[in-house]
Design goal:
- There is one protein chain.
- The chain is of the alpha+beta class and 171 residues long.
- The protein has five helices and seven strands.
- Strands 1-2-3-4-5-7-6 form a seven-stranded mixed beta sheet, sandwiched between helices.
- A hairpin with a 2-residue loop joins strand 2 and strand 3.
- The termini are far apart.
Length: 171
Amino acid sequence: MTQHPEQDLLKEIIVRHNFQYGDLGIVLVLHGELYHREYQFNHEFEGYVAAGLAEFAQVYQEGKSRLWIAEIKGKAIGSLAIIARPQQQAQLRWFLIHPDYRGIGLGKLMVKSAIKFCREAGYQSIFLWTLENLITARIIYEKYGFVLQEEKEHFLWGHNVIEQYYVLHLN
């Protein structure tokens, strides 16, 4: 059987979830740089991500919260987090794959890992907010059973955006 170059590349990637000092900064830099480059979001977006990361650090609970960092040769190329929320809910946040590593199955692997973690942690549902124009991420969410519940239009980060609220029921 012939192996595809994408599969070889995926084998080189390590997805770790051993929360380390500096990981929150990695997530902030990835989001700040990539969302500015790809969507021209202004500095307010980076502040928004930083505020959420500060909250994650303050409410972090081993076994209930988790941060995944995807790396290749020591360089961070992706992230995803689960945050504990009230009423046995989890929030999925900061799902991002560097453009050079999209389309190889890494995003699916990370979302699948997050769902598995949430089931094992005893959550009843996972929710997330995304943007309408993040089509590939939305396709992955929907593939794993997330259902669109709500849409809101805002002027955020220097642009008109449509936020979308998705939920996955785990029971």
